[in-house]
């Protein structure tokens, strides 16, 4: 644009020189100078228009390239300076008057300042797009759900419903552990809790009764066993344990009465009849003694000990049956002192039989 200014200055100087040196010119000269000046003015307007159009095209190309590098939200601010800069250019093109020199200078200054403005638009600051209300609400809901899951997964305590058998087993284990540690009171409490959950667990009841008996609480032990017998009269193992405790407490009569109330199968519980036979022998109750040993012989016929016991029970009332049982016992026993005793009994019974026969 400085070249245009120089051209205009040269034209002004030439016009001034021609006006001062040719005062005697003809009447045609003034129209020639005005026509030449109008021609030059038209040329200037054309050049200004070309420059303005070129600037407008160049500016649009620069802004479009800048807007492609940014988000669509940032295109509106970049277009506003274009309209502001294009207004002076349009005004300069629409008014070709004598003040065009001044406008040309302003256009030149704007052209010089344009690169700096475009540079300011090339790298705008990125604008953080705020999430919409729905997106923000969804993210908050998701965050709250994740926090809730994390909190419930970390601190929630779920209760597990145990069966009665599981409760009883846990209490039994605690009782055994407490008993090993010498905490007998705690062990008794755990045994009681186990029976409250499973009262038909006779082994637990026997363990509890044995614990109390070992602590010297015989009355408590017998009460525990009697309570079980009231609920389960056919619990012969409880009856047998109670009778054993009574025998050790020197109460054979009560023990025998307890045993004879119910008679289990000798094959299932031979020790039941064994204790009953021993108690009957202590009390000289031959009927109970015969019943007990006969049940044992029927259950275990090859056991010489049961044969010997039955022979002794029959010796006074049924000597011939006793003789036969003594002979069966001698054939099944290998203990020498016992065999000697059996031989004496056989000799005695045969002798009695010989004297009684005419």
Automatic annotation (TrEMBL):
<feature type="region of interest" description="Disordered">
    <location>
        <begin position="8"/>
        <end position="32"/>
    </location>
</feature>
<feature type="region of interest" description="Disordered">
    <location>
        <begin position="64"/>
        <end position="181"/>
    </location>
</feature>
<feature type="compositionally biased region" description="Basic and acidic residues">
    <location>
        <begin position="167"/>
        <end position="177"/>
    </location>
</feature>
<feature type="compositionally biased region" description="Low complexity">
    <location>
        <begin position="71"/>
        <end position="83"/>
    </location>
</feature>
<protein>
    <recommendedName>
        <fullName>Tetratricopeptide repeat protein</fullName>
    </recommendedName>
</protein>
<keyword id="KW-0472">Membrane</keyword>
<feature type="transmembrane region" description="Helical">
    <location>
        <begin position="38"/>
        <end position="58"/>
    </location>
</feature>
<keyword id="KW-1133">Transmembrane helix</keyword>
<dbReference type="InterPro" id="IPR011990">
    <property type="entry name" value="TPR-like_helical_dom_sf"/>
</dbReference>
<keyword id="KW-0812">Transmembrane</keyword>
<feature type="compositionally biased region" description="Polar residues">
    <location>
        <begin position="149"/>
        <end position="162"/>
    </location>
</feature>
